[in-house]
Structures are given as C-alpha cells and as structure tokens.
Design goal:
Blueprint lengths: L30 E2 L20 E2 L20 H4 L7 E2 L9 E11 L11 E5 L1 E2 L13 E4 L5 E9 L5 E7 L12 E6 L1 H23 L8 E8 L2 E7 L7 H18 L4 E4 L2 H7 L15 E4 L23 E9 L2 E8 L7
Parallel strand pairs: 2-14, 3-6
Antiparallel strand pairs: 1-11, 4-5, 4-10, 5-9, 7-8, 7-10, 8-9, 11-12, 12-16, 13-14, 15-16
Helix pairs in contact: 2-3
Amino acid sequence: MVFSFCLGSTACSDLFHDIPLSDRSLPTLVHSTRSSRPCMATKAIHLASRPPRIVTLAPRATPRAYTASRTLISPARAAMTSPKTELVYFSDTYQTSCEAKVVSCEPVEDPGDDGVARFVVVLDRTVAYPAGGGQPSDTGRIVGPGGVAFVVASVASTKDGTVTHLGEFEEEGAAPFNADDEVIVTVDADKRLLHARIHSAGHLLDVAMTNIGFGPDVMVPAKGLHQPDQAYVEYTGKVEGLDKDKLMADLKAEMNKLVSLGGGSAAAMMGYDEAAEACGGELPSYIPKDSTPRIVTIVPDTAGCPCGGTHVANVKEIGSVDVTGVRVKKGTTRVSYTIEGMKDHK
C-alpha cells in the first residue's frame, strides 16, 4: 500500500474546511502541530498526492508537516484512500508541463458578479499543485483539441484525492472540454519556484530556531503560512524576557549560513521500518505498517519529516533570507520572514 501526506515544511494541522467549487479565490490554509516528537508532529494527513513525502533541511530539524489548504481530506479517510488524480509534480518540483486526459469539465453553478462562465476541470493526472501546507496553488493553462485554452485560476483537492482546476476558457463561448480529450497542462514556472523557495524557507526557520537554542523543548512549531505576500511560522511557547531584536538577528544569520552551505536533495521510497529510521526512529501512529512512505532529504544525512509541498532541490536556491518580525501574544511566538522575490523583501 502506498500513501501520501499533504504535509508541509514543519507543522501539521487538523483543520479541514469545506468550500463550494464556486469559490474562486481558494485561499491557502495555514498548518499547525501539537507535538515536538520527531515525525509525530502531524495530526492530519492529506492524500491528494502520492506516498508520504519526507523533507529534511538541516541537522536536528524538528519535522513540521502541513495539512492541505481547502483540501477537504479528513485524517481517517485519508489513511484508507488513494488519490484519484496522479500528481506529476510530486516527483519533480521543476516539471511545469504534462499531458493528461480530461475526466470531466463542469460549469460552476454561480458564475459570479461579472457573469463570466467558470468551469471545474478534472484530469486523470496533473502537474498543477493544489493549495495546501500553507502554500498557494499553482496557476496556469490547460490546452485541449484545436488549441482551445482554459485559464487555471486556482487548484484544489477534494476528499477522495481528486484535483480540481477552477477557471475559465480564454475565448468566451468556447466549447467545454469533453471526457477523454487529450490536453496539455502548464503552470507558471516562476510562481512554482517562488512558492517552493518560500515553503522550503519555512523548514529552514525551524532548523535555525533549533540551532540557536529555541528548539521544540522551548518552542513547539504550531502553524505557519508561506505566501508571496506574507510568510511566518508560529510557535507555542514564549521565553520570558525574550530579546526580539537579538532573536531576529540570530535567526537571520543562521538561516543565511545554512543557505550558503547548501546541500542537494534526494528522494526514495522506503519500507515502513526504513522510513521510521529515516524520520528519527518512528512514524506517526496513523501510518499503516504496510505502507511505503516516500522519504525526501534536502540536506544530506539529516532526519526527515513528512511533507507534500514543493521544495527546492538545493537549499542554496532559497536565496537570501530576512527575519522581519517577532510577535509574542497569548503564549504564541510568531516569527515572520521574507526571501528574495517576496513582497517587501529587502
């Protein structure tokens, strides 16, 4: 049996929200965790991708994992189901186009105030990343027979692992796709890479927190958001008399040091025991013993954590990092950051 988890850079959440397909914005949900145990941090699984992905960014990194944004997958159902849509991006962050067949193309009941007809397209496979793990979805185009083009505004995943592409046809009045039409899906490559870099930086922040003495024994990763206009990780816990300016400076220095050191990534399917060993000795209890987790390592020879987001192949690709704020409120410490390419990055 092969399972996958929509688990992001460090923490996981059991937040799941139903939304109508007519919701055109499909905002990204943040992720959260409640435990600091290696690979036991997650409380929610998302199987809108293939086998569990384990991502590691640096030594002693406490694994964090994310739930999918608006993916509608419950932990119990996810553990016993396989995704209906093949996720091509899962094996290669940098692949931004693929061939596919149309499963369905249905109009959205409420087209919105502008009166533009919108559709939900389901394919047998896709290269488009559905929003999740604090990471926004891809956007792009689906081109079918005769060059008919469909503009993908957002991507999401349903409870059974079906990926839905929401958008509109470029030409008003164009005939919708038919089942079994052969199409080509292409996503915005620059946006894909930016999202992967921001997401990876979320992992890196946890690593840096641990390396400078604020690991999960002091502050437990709680939730985070990784979008071009805002990125942060929240930690449960606070330090009395915390020098916020010093923390920001130390984190910035440590994160940029890790970026400069770099390290290539690797991925491998592993048996349960091997995967548990790769994750620090154990896997979450909800992972079946007969499953075959997929282990992804971004920095060699480090412990991993389940993750279903897109990530850079080498930490160097994250680029310069700035820690822009520390907020402490009601026992929660939020650390905000930016990287090159994000809004307001300096």
